[in-house]
Amino acid sequence: MLQSLRPVSPDHVRESTVRGQYARGVADGKEVPGYREEEGVASDSCTESYLALQVQIDNWRWAGVPFFLRAGKRMPRRVTEITAQFRDVPHHLFRSDSPAPNILALQVQPDEGISLRFGVKVPGANPRIRPVDMDFRYEDSFKQDAPDAYERLILDALLGDSTLFIRRDEVECSWAYIDRLYEGWALADPGRPLPEYTAGTWGPPEADILLAQGGRTWRRPQ
């Protein structure tokens, strides 16, 4: 899969990525300093604490499907989630101003589970569609906590099971892709201050613009 990542040329890196640094704000109910105000961080640091990017995968399975990734520090809460938004149909059976897309969300951390959001007709004579959710939670179903990710990896290391470990060629592909991004940033934004976002928010406004260009929005974790 990593070998199928379409490289981002330095000329297009600003169109496909958004970097940012968190500024002073409120996180976990208390005021926190901005990134460049943190102890040990240079006042002119250009190190990003947030990244959003659009990725294309050139293989038969995912050709033409855009992937949007984002990761950051000092966001409202710690969450790892994979969301698949289903493509809209060209014709809707019922009239609706803006039908919500069907979404499959896989919650990886901290609350493992699966959510499916889809539209249903509201009972009654009016042809109205409303989104509803079907949720599955491992903790609710099995009544036990899942082992911590590092607990599983340490056990696998002791057993000599490398199934869940990244291979050398995967590491090389990952860094080859990332190195091209850094080359593009060095050419496009030499010394330019990074966009800021308030600590306790979901990132800089530029990241919303990145998705809005295709008529999309970021999903807010439940």
Fold and architecture overview:
The chain is α+β, with helices and mostly antiparallel strands. The protein has a domain at 2-76 and 143-212: Dihydrodipicolinate Reductase, domain 2, CATH 3.30.360.10. It has five helices and ten strands. It has helices spanning 13-16, 138-142, 149-159, 168-188, 205-212; strands at residues 17-23, 25-27, 30-32, 50-56, 66-72, 80-85, 103-109, 113-121, 129-137, 196-198. The chain has a four-stranded mixed β-sheet with strand order 5-4-1-10. The longest helix has 21 residues, at 168-188.
Category by helix and strand content = alpha+beta
CATH homology superfamily of the domain at 2-76 and 143-212? Dihydrodipicolinate Reductase, domain 2
Percent strand: 25-35%
* Overall form: globular
Span of the ends, CA to CA: 29 Å
Radius of gyration computed on alpha carbons: 21 Å
The CATH class of the domain at 2-76 and 143-212 turns out to be: Alpha Beta
Q: Would you list the SSEs in sequence order as H and E?
A: HEEEEEEEEEHHHEH
Sheet having the most strands: 4 strands, mixed
Number of strands: 10
Residue ranges: pLDDT <50 for 5 or more in a row?
none
The name CATH uses for the topology of the domain at 2-76 and 143-212 is Dihydrodipicolinate Reductase, domain 2
